[in-house]
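Morning F.,

Quick status update on the modeling queue. The single chain you submitted on Monday has been processed. Sequence for confirmation:
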Amino acid sequence: MRVFVTGATGFIGTELVKELIAAGHQVRGLTRSDAGVEQLKAAGVEVHRGDLQDLDSLCRGATGMDAAVNLAFNHDFPSSHRTGSPASSEWTRKTLGWEPTGPGLIEDLKNMKY
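Structure tokens below.
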């Protein structure tokens, strides 16, 4: 399976990437830094240089993939609350065609609203 991972260089993403590669999956990881590029290359990951705030870049990163795992997090709280996070809202709707309903994903899954 081909998997696009945002947050691929983060605490959880790093471990997920290792597990996916060990299981024989092909991984494309999102990074915005030179250090991230080097980390992903060293792990055997296809690098996608981009940013959570760039919706087009996120869509290009997910193109041709079988799955997308969003583990990225925008640590700029005032900015993310003011403008919304493309990675968690607009990108999800446009790229995956999933519209969240109700109080959140867990409740949606319980009610089969996905």
